[in-house]
Amino acid sequence: MVVLTANNAELLDIHYHSQIKGTNIKSRLKLWTPLLKSASNPNDIGLLVTYIKALTEFCNVNPRWATTALRKNCEYLTALSVKETDQSTLEDVASALRAAFKVTLVDNENEQHKMGRTLECYSMSVFLLALYVHMRAYTLAEGILQATIQYHDNIPPLESSPPQVQTKFLFYKGCLKFFKLDYASAVQCFEQSLDVVQYRIPTVQFEHIMAYLIPAKYLHSHKVPSSAVWEALPKLKELYSPLFLASRQGNWSEFETLLKTRSALLSDSRILLSLEAMSGIVRLNLLHRLWLIKGSPKRLELEDFALSLETAKVIPQGVPALEAAEFYIAQLIADGEVKGYIHDEYKLLLLSSTSAFPNL
């Protein structure tokens, strides 16, 4: 994709000169020379940043066509930047994209151009969100979401954007919820993202969304995909299915082994951190299995669960087994995974007579 050409840079120069009266030749050459040079090397991020900064300024003069050119070049810049690792370069890109995003939030200069500029707002936000997630600058990404909320009266609704833009915006919104361990909200965003574009066959984008949705849904409600979904996504089945099985069986040693072998396969370390959070589900199923073996009683001795934890090698080194058992059960009760309370004096778990394990 070659965006920059001598022709469109020259055209931009002509429009710019026609709008800004009195601009001298020296100023024009100083502004546009880098753009003409960039035509011979469209992959030069630095020159592309310069071009986009100039386009951003130009949008204040003639937003009708300049905003479209700005969006296309920002899209190209983002595609190049998400492969970049140099922090200084990424910060320069972020600065250029932020300025471009701000231009599309409002258009006070000319009312008739309002919709032309603000229609690109969500496209620009997607470019910034993609870059910030790549940079792991999640707080800055949250700021972009807040800006779209703050200026919602000035910009068209998300639904007026192209479907691909809606899908990506909702996906990145879901990612930020996922990273904050808000799995319920993450699931909602990912499912909305899939609903926008009805995928008849699995695509790369569909698989990318499902790579987050599947663990988010399991961590939120312990639900696993249907056999039809697994068949459509064999790579994700190989990645997640054994982990889910070990988790549901309360098989801690198997779960730990699988987690270690999959760490190299996960390109996103935040997914790995979330999978590590599944250890709580392993302990829950371990407690549930003990409860079933004991005949589903209303009382469980903490010592029995402590023994199960020791056998499964779940307890950190140096931590007394009984203390670990009490701590893990208290955590499960606080998370709403177990209904009951701990009798501290007698070291008993007193369970609810109905739905002792509401999510199992």
- Annotation, overall tally of beta strands: 3
Give the H and E element order: HHHHHHHHHHHHHHHHEHHEE
Given as residue ranges, the uncertain stretches (5+ residues, pLDDT < 50) are 1-26, 28-40
Mean pLDDT: 82
The side-by-side strand order for the widest beta sheet comes to 1-3-2
Globular, elongated, flat, extended or rod-shaped: what is the shape? elongated
Distance between the termini: 51 Å
Task: Profile the largest sheet.
Answer: 3 strands, antiparallel
Helical content class? 55-70%
The total count of helices amounts to 18
Main structural class? mainly alpha
Radius of gyration, in Å, reads 27 Å
Can you walk me through this structure?
- By secondary structure, the protein is mainly alpha-helical.
- The protein contains 18 helices and three strands.
- The protein has helices at residues 6-19, 25-38, 45-59, 63-81, 87-103, 114-118, 121-135, 138-150, 163-179, 183-196, 204-221, 227-232, 234-249, 252-262, 269-276, 279-293, 302-312, 321-334, and strands at residues 299-301, 340-343, 348-351.
- It has a three-stranded antiparallel β-sheet with strand order 1-3-2.
- Helix 2 (25-38) packs across helix 3, helix 3 packs parallel to helix 5 and helix 16 packs across helix 17.
How does the SSE layout of this entry go?
Blueprint: H1 6-19, H2 25-38, H3 45-59, H4 63-81, H5 87-103, H6 114-118, H7 121-135, H8 138-150, H9 163-179, H10 183-196, H11 204-221, H12 227-232, H13 234-249, H14 252-262, H15 269-276, H16 279-293, E1 299-301, H17 302-312, H18 321-334, E2 340-343, E3 348-351
Antiparallel strand pairs: 1-3, 2-3
